[in-house]
Amino acid sequence: MIRATCVYLFVGLYVLLLGPFGILWTILSGNSALMYHMARFCIRAAGWMFGIRVAIHGREKIAPGVTYVFLSNHQGNFDGPVLMHVIPRDWGALIKQEMMRIPVLSTVLRLAQFIPIERRNPKKAHLGIDRGAALLKRGKSYLAFPEGTRSRDGHLGEFKKGAFIMAIKAQAPVLPITIINSSSIQRPGEYRIRPGSIEVFIHDPIETTEMTLEDRQRLIHLTREAIASRLPEAHTVRCGAS
User: Fold this and answer.
1) Assigned domain for 214 exists
2) Do 68 and 206 meet the contact criterion of CB atoms below 8 Å apart?
């Protein structure tokens, strides 16, 4: 409990004190690279303080110069930060609208071209997907958790189709990612954070060239199959897409 409180304070102060500097630099220079460097430093420092180790498999499958839609299962609060550490490039993400209510962080996310998705407003959600497709075409890679929310029991949930539509519209390859054991670091509803190891498996890319929106269910199936291939069998029983 004490360690968790100390690390939360460190992250909060880091964002509040250094975040405005990164924001100002990005606005003046038009380059968000410094913000990503600052975020990765904070994540690595917090991971070291928490005693969290990350084993990465298949990072070489991320080809330089290729724009991807990174799609991962979602087990816990640390998935996003872990992938910021794992993926060696500056990417945007499809995020919950609620994250844009957090002071300082919301400005950072906006400058980094993260896209809030209003799940209760289909029209605005479609506009967000279209914006993501346009940015993909301009070379900005994106991360999304197709389950839409964290799994509370480790099972792979149903996949939402938005990120797949975005990938097909941009004709960008999907890169499936499996995260294992992040849920044991901080269990659902708990404040306490436990030391431990997280494994990340990066799979072969799935090309969307010549796919149309009619192929989205096939793309969902292929992505789900890849992600599930590294999960314990008991955690892959749910299926479907919405």
Assistant:
1) yes
2) no
